[in-house]
Amino acid sequence: MKHKIKYKPTKEKILITQEIKDEYVKDLGTEIYISEEKKRREFGVHFTSIDIFRKFILPEIKNILHNYSWIDLFAGEGNLVLPILEIIPKDKRIEFFKEHIFLFDIQKEMVEKAIAKAQSYGIPFKIAKENIQIRDTLQNYPDFTHLKYPPYHITNPPYLYLGYIVKHSDRNLKYFSGPNEGYQDLYQIALINDLRHDIEKMIYIIPTNFLFGFSVSNKIRRDFFPFYDIKKAIIFERKIFEFTGTNVCICFFERKQKPSQEPIIFKALKINNKTIEKEYRLSPKNFYRAGSEFDEFVSSFKSSSPLKIKFYLTLEEVKKNKGPYQVKLLDVNTFSNGYYKVNTYSVNERLYKKLQQNPLFVRTLDTGSWEGRAGIYNVKETFGVDGIVVTKEKYRTHPIQIFVAPELSFDDLSLLKNYFNLALEYFRDITDSEFMTTFKYSDSDYVRKYLGLSQTKKLLETFPVHLMSSKTKEILRILIEQKNIEGIKNILLDLKEKVRNQATLF
Predict the structure, then answer these.
(1) Which strand (E) or helix (H) includes residue 378?
(2) Where do the H-state alpha helices sit in 44-160?
(3) E strands within 57-189?
(4) Does residue 319 have a pLDDT over 50?
(5) Running DSSP on this structure, what letter comes out for residue 197?
(6) Over 80: is that where the pLDDT of 84 sits?
(7) Which residue among 20, 30, 221, 505 is least packed, with the fewest CB closer than 10 Å?
(8) What is the rounded distance in angstroms from the CA atom of residue 250 to the CA atom of residue 202?
């Protein structure tokens, strides 16, 4: 029996206790339904609103409705297909439904809701239940060879990452065995199933990591894109599902006439606090990953003899290097009320000099203001301290001290910092920050992003300031002030070639 707990509307925050931890609060004044959140986590289900279908999908298919069988193998309540009936004349809806609409879902209650919705469009119960069925389509793909019209799959498949499944949802592990071994998410199983069953056209609402992810999506893109093109995409950088902040995109897929390793080129609308149109080129050389300009640059421009970069100053290192020198260190594990705690430590000469010689830190996370964008900053100028210490756990999102070898002069460190920040903003501009990870939706002028430490290290490795002559440094200083990226690229390529040639001689 479904429990219902009613409460009066209040402006105060609602405390959800241990007893109702599997419940969710939809809006103040509504009822709390036990186990709904648990179902979402178990099945990876996030229901699509009819508005998404009406605004972004229906305009693309309304002129071809009678040419295809419209199917959804993960139909939920049917919001991605049943609204087609709204533009079918009432006296023709039953016949259209019989021949053109086929829905499936693993959950009985969802099938019942979809049948009820079909009835609201005038479809008799007996006919509705013939074409709307309970089925685990990830494991038991339907046979569509008997259909009068070719299947066109419109779906919002389940999203459930394999890493989460291993820890929390053993029932879903079965989908990742046999030929599906190596895929990383349930939606990827859905895509590869459609490929194996020769579905010609599909419209998928899926996480944007399908386009922009690294290892999580490399295999599915490598296996999928030799057979399919993207004809169009809509990329959302704002929340469209009630219970998840996962970035999603709507991809319009079309099967190629024959398999090809050619790059995939398509136009997409990106929607956040503004809407822009952008062209993407997905190359097999980079696992068909979108926003790859940054990765191509750091790969092509990595120095033959790069700087050696290390991150983090730990409390353990501070304790091992006690001595007579006083230093003020920012404790990144004690953030409270908008401030970090600062402690004074007594350290030996070695650690004191190390801190003096390495005054830079990386802010991996946008703060929401233009002055606090991800990038490299000076510790003393920003925080008024000598260093940044980790006293407990290392987190990738707090300020992180950078240690560089060989030792660089203050001027060289300043040049390195300015180069890094210019290059980072350049790639954020040309890729709309797509090489970075979206951190949080906000009302700021840009979508807040996270810069990985590996990305930080790779970009620093393209600037071997320790190998540059004074003349080269001066030229680069001017080019950086002018924001002349192409001129900087030319200098770096020439330097890389010189270093390579010198290495060959020895």
Answers:
(1) strand 375-378
(2) 50-52, 58-61, 93-100, 108-120, 125-131
(3) 69-72, 101-105, 132-134, 151-155
(4) yes
(5) T
(6) yes
(7) 505
(8) 10
| Other residues' Cβ atoms within 10 Å of the Cβ of residue 139 | 12
* Backbone φ and ψ of 90, nearest 5°: -55, -35
Question: What percentage of the chain exceeds 70 in pLDDT?
Answer: 85
- Helix or strand or coil: residue 72? strand
Determine the length of the chain: 506
pTM: 0.71
Residue 135: strand, helix, or coil: coil
Single-letter amino acid, residue 261: Q
Burial of residue 227, with CB atoms counted within 10 A of its CB: 0-12 exposed, 13-18 middle, 19 or more buried? middle
Q: What is the DSSP string of 22-37?
A: T-B--STTS-EETTHH
Q: What span, in angstroms and rounded, lies between the C-alpha atoms of 193 and 184?
A: 14
Q: Look-up: residue for tokens 């989460």?
A: 164
The contacts found for 116-124 with CB under 8 angstroms, 24 or more apart, are 117/77, 117/78, 117/82, 118/78, 118/82, 118/85, 121/82, 121/85, 121/86, 121/93, 121/97, 122/85, 122/90, 122/93, 122/94, 123/85, 123/93, 123/94, 123/97, 124/94
Distance CA 153, CA 204 (A): 8
Would you list the DSSP string of 305-348? Answer: SPPEEEE-EEHHHHHHTEEEEEEEEEEEEEEETTEEEEEEEEE-
Structure tokens at 372: 């606090």
Query: ω before 406 within 30° of 0 (cis)?
Result: yes
Write the CB contacts of 409 (distance below 8 Å, at least 6 apart in sequence). none
Among positive and negative, which fits the CA dihedral 284, 288, 293, 296? Answer: negative
Delimit the domains of the chain by residue range: 4-34, 308-505
Q: Which of 234, 213, 229 is nearest to 277 (CA)?
A: 234
Residue 375: strand pairing partners: 363
What sign does the dihedral 213-217-218-223 (CA atoms) show?
Answer: negative
How many angstroms separate the Cα of 288 from the Cα of each of 214, 215, 219, 313, 431? 10, 12, 10, 37, 15
pLDDT, tens only, 166-176: 666 666 788 99
